Amino acid sequence: DIPKELLNSVNFWFHIYSKYSQFELVFFDGTDHSKVYFVQDDRDLFQKGYSPIKIELTSELRYKKNIQKLRAAFSNLSRNPKKSFKPDSLEYKIVKLWGRKSSSQWNNISGEIKTQRGQKDFVIEGISRSIPYQHSIEKVFTQYNLPPELTRIALLESSFQLEAQSKANAVGVWQFMESSGREFLTINKAKGIDERRSPIKATVAAAKLLKRHIRIVGGLYLGIISYNHGVRNLIKFKNKITCYHHSQHFS
């Protein structure tokens, strides 16, 4: 069950992870994810055989031009909130998405332009890498009375790359930081031991961590969010989300 307040965001991220590739940059509104302005498609740069550096520079140049076009369109709407625009104009498309707004409202909306590259390729690669471990990691979550579907969190955390290491030094398919990893896993750099890199042992640790977070925040939704966001930041929402679940007859 998806709460209606989250439906637009859930649909947006579903498309990011299942529809758009890493070669597509989505321009959207940061407060209402149902408002997608356009998609910058860079696949032609790869088809032309450009070098990685040229692809990066050309893509960045396109991004800057597209941001300028969007900001110019919003500026035009702010100056002329009642004007009728041509059907092929960006202003027309924005009005069709939002409806008519006042000048101040257009200014506010223009400050919420966000971009996100597609992740479909990484999810596909992650699914392929996870196949040998899928039965075992789902079995672990079942043993801990957790929905086996939650094992897909690892796909979003690392695309199931066994040697994944983030800029913040989170390691392994479940992206454990050293501090949290030491609580559940053996990490001994002197002996070259780091169980965060073991997909099965790290899955057991992830199950234990999720179980504890769900207990602390009092619900599955916040428990899932807490895996990446941290449990301390979500405790304040515990009573609100619990009341919402009861009112919606969620278990």
Give a verbal description of the structure.
The chain has 251 residues and is mainly alpha-helical. 54% of the residues lie in helices and 8% in strands. Residues 246-251 have low confidence and may be disordered.
Short description:
The chain has 251 residues and is mainly α. The chain has helices at 7-18, 43-47, 52-79, 90-98, 103-110, 120-130, 134-143, 153-158, 178-184, 199-217, 220-229, 238-247; strands spanning 24-29, 36-41, 113-117, 187-188, 193-194.
What descriptive keywords fit this protein?
globular; three-stranded antiparallel beta sheet; mainly alpha; 54% helix; disordered C terminus; single chain
**Can you summarize the main beta sheet?**
3 strands, antiparallel
| Strand content bin | 5-15%
Structural class: mainly alpha
The low-pLDDT segments are 246-251
